[in-house]
Amino acid sequence: MCCQAGGLRDVARLPQHHRGIAPSTLASANESDPVCCVVRDNLSDWVCHTLANAMRHAHLWVTIALVGLPLVGRAGQAPAQDPRALTVVSLNLALREDADRIADELLAIGAAQAADLILLQEVVKRDAGPDVAWRLAQRLGLDSVYHASFRLGEQRSAGLAFLSRQPPRDLRLLRLRRFELSFRSRDRIALGAAVETPSGTIHVYNVHLDTRINLAQRLDQLAAVTRDLDALEGPVIVGGDFNTNDNRWLFHTIPLPFIGRQASGLVRFMEERGFRSAFGPGRPTHDALGMRLDWMFLRGLRASARSIQPVPVSDHHALIVSVVPTRRDLMVRRATGSDGSHLGHSRLQ
């Protein structure tokens, strides 16, 4: 059984040589797992995978217990890990290029061990070498997909990336509206992909919007993503750096502080399209002035655990969310036979 690999929509196929190391099948992913080695002779592959999956996510639950991360569910109690859960991490790398340090800090907060999918923004690639996401994937044993968004001088570019335990399919590149910002005007993109889970397909978008724009322009820039996802059925995640701030910008240059209220406007915009933020209000995601720049929006999914963790290598904080299908979405999938039971795992060709 295998998934048919979808091509990149809208522009061109993403470069395949930027993929990192990833298991092509579930069995090979568990080949070196000590738990699997003990039970493989007596238990089924399904049980083996479930145990390995629980151990992989155990790092996140240890982190939750130690630092008191906000949870969905009964206060003070970490929910039992749902085998249907997909753990997603989002982080703006702030153009940092030390892949080993980034990996160490993601490991230190339990994000790298728990994550099934990592959304990265401001990922640097030097013209003479691989992108930072590819080097990070090599270190963590993950698959990677990268696409450049804008140039940084003569020898570097910056863009978006997915890191994942299983290669995503149906990759798409969306070019967002460009705004002339007087200085440091940049082309912006979003990356979309489909990820297979035990409950079926989840569509994921990784976005990075401009900074010095007002709410109406921010929503206009996001419109390419909402148009694309309007044609999709089933659960959707939209995450990344939305750069929401409370300024009113004059000429894309002069900020009038605390009168913009972009966060609430963004939340209303997404709620009108059936999304809910994975995090409640008041949780900063940036070191400066307690700003909320980064978001993760869910449709057809609920957060079973969530955390916002500072990462010293970046001025942005890491968003960590474990998601499972809502009861309504799961019932629809079962009724239509699209609950993922027929899906296997294969590398995107």
Keywords for this entry:
alpha+beta; six-stranded mixed sheet; 26% helix; disordered N terminus; 349 residues; globular; disordered C terminus; Deoxyribonuclease I, Chain A; single chain
Structural overview:
The chain has 349 residues and is of the alpha+beta class. It has a single domain (27-335), classed as Deoxyribonuclease I, Chain A. The chain contains 9 helices and 14 strands. The protein has helices spanning 26-29, 34-39, 45-67, 99-108, 111-114, 132-140, 215-230, 262-271, 327-336; strands at 86-92, 117-126, 143-152, 156-164, 169-175, 189-197, 200-208, 236-241, 248-250, 254-256, 276-277, 294-299, 301-310, 317-325. Strand 9 (248-250) and strand 10 (254-256) form a beta hairpin. Helix 4 crosses helix 6.
pLDDT < 50 runs, ≥5 residues: 1-7, 11-80, 340-349
**How far from one another are the termini?**
15 Å
Alpha-carbon Rg, integer: 20 Å
Major sheet summary line: 6 strands, mixed
Overall structural class, as computed from helix and strand content, comes to alpha+beta
Question: Which CATH-level-2 architecture?
Answer: 4-Layer Sandwich
The CATH class: Alpha Beta
Task: Kindly identify the CATH topology.
Answer: Deoxyribonuclease I, Chain A
Fraction of residues in helix:
25-40%
In short:
With 349 residues, the chain is an alpha+beta fold.
SSE blueprint and pairings:
Blueprint: H1 26-29, H2 34-39, H3 45-67, E1 86-92, H4 99-108, H5 111-114, E2 117-126, H6 132-140, E3 143-152, E4 156-164, E5 169-175, E6 189-197, E7 200-208, H7 215-230, E8 236-241, E9 248-250, E10 254-256, H8 262-271, E11 276-277, E12 294-299, E13 301-310, E14 317-325, H9 327-336
Parallel strand pairs: 1-2, 7-8
Antiparallel strand pairs: 1-14, 2-4, 3-4, 5-6, 6-7, 8-12, 9-10, 11-12, 13-14
Helix pairs in contact: 4-6
